[in-house]
Fold this protein.
Amino acid sequence: MNYEQFGVFSGRGTSKYKYKIVDVEGLAKAAGAGIFPNSSAIKRDPNFKKWLTKASADRVPWNHVNTGDPQSDFYVWATAEGVGPGTQLFFTGEALLNAGHYEQALKAYYASLVHFPGEAVWSADLTFVWYIGPAALNRIEEITNHHPELGFKLAGAFCKIENAEDTNLKNDIVTVDPGHWEKVQPAKLGLEGLKIIRERGKGRVRLVQYENRHWQLIVDGAPLVVHGVSYMPTPIGLHISEYGNKWMYEDRNHNGKPDAPYDAFVDRNKNGKKDRDEKPVGDFQLMKDMGVNAIRIYRMSTDLKYDSREFNKKLLRDLYKTYGIRVVMGDYLGAYTVGSGASYEAGTDYTDPVQKKHMKNLVAAYVNDHKKEPYVLMWLLGNENLMSADYSGVNATRTLASKQPEAYLKFVNEVAGMIHSLDPDHPVAVGNWEKGFLEEHAKYAPAVDIMGVNSYQGKVGFGRLWKDVREKFDRPVLITEYGVDAFDWRTGEEDEKVQAEYHEGNWKDIEYHLAGGAGEGNSIGGIIFEWLDEWWKSNLGSWNVHEKTKDQPMAFPDGFSSEEWFGLFSAGDGEESPFYRSPRQVYFLYKDKLWRK
């Protein structure tokens, strides 16, 4: 569709952007039924009238998001009342996407960008908002990337929301250019013959950029794509804050080996107990079988003096030597106030020299303790430290970073520079929430080698993340967390199939953007969140109960995260923890299709 045929754009690329329809009838016909300004056409559709007689009485739009019945979802959203028109268009697009009608889905998403880019959608608990324009651009990017047969790309489009980190809609500044559609030719694939124009690091693990601007992670002279998992096998009944990294030592069956890594067993017949033929196999072997080549761990101790005994080096050496798995070595850098000495109520303050000294000293000791170990892949600083703050000024990870982005990122830069001087063999990544503050990263933290991003954008992938990092902070991208829970709060049942479908879409997007591919070429892999369900995770209930809750509004199939159900493995009923493992479909998806192909 060419919107200039039916109206007039003004203020492109500014906060005064507008689109004025001149030919309503022509635009409605071109858009098609269900797409603004032609939403009412659905009501004249005989199929819609037939559906009305069979459909349930539930016409609440929010109960029709990714239900598995895209026709019903489409009819409900296309005729929805009581929601914003941009929101209506976006979720109409979701239904069309789920039905495989990609061109019509693109029309819906693009219409929401053209007409209602600054529309905000409140979360169910009214604690945060998300915006239609950027979300629609994400979907457009994902669809055109993964369906090159469509032959079109949206060029020159952007939608920037200033002050989006807070929930005050009055201070939003929305800058928009809806771009234009272009026909595209198949991308030239491969890296053969391309010169390396840039390197970050000269040691065992380094990063190279080719003349096409694609990035690769090079480990011991060979390219490596990170197939990672977040590994924190906390036993049922314990909280991560008290258990930490004790899994590296815990030996409940007294056989001289740590339990989870070496003695976990698989409940193959899913009868909820250990049968005689279900011998111990261990998580490390299960990871190797799946194709994992890295795990992500963090320094968990809240002490202000580094204690090397937190880590079982013998175990980690064996992880690498026997199973070929390296370690992403994380330090929270004050997230959850770990290492800063700040009170949990006040949060870590990155303008406080005493707190910064605590954190820097701990990182230095951590790096010096491990830098010569063969299992180290990279250093990872922080975990969502820049997440937006609540009304008290402290964010969910208990830092003031989003109120102090310059101070925080200058400190990240200082620590990254220190790590480079102590350990030239391994790169430094930062652990960010989604793609916030990219320009500030470029300005204040140039010593960072890898843009690590925890991202939960939906089942199709990560949208414009790759392009935005390319344009604003040209670094390789590691998705440091991605995944979805295996629980559907609407039915109250586990849904392994939906979890697997979500993971497949995410990994295909990570692959699409690898060096030498058709995408942005700045992907170096991803880290699944997570290996095993964590029963301590929900804010409601008991650590001994697998809570069936909807915890946070998310871009998940049922609209919410269920925090205790993210694992590739279930812990069963908890009675045989920490040994019991029941693999979900998603484990076999990676083992048989995605990571061992």
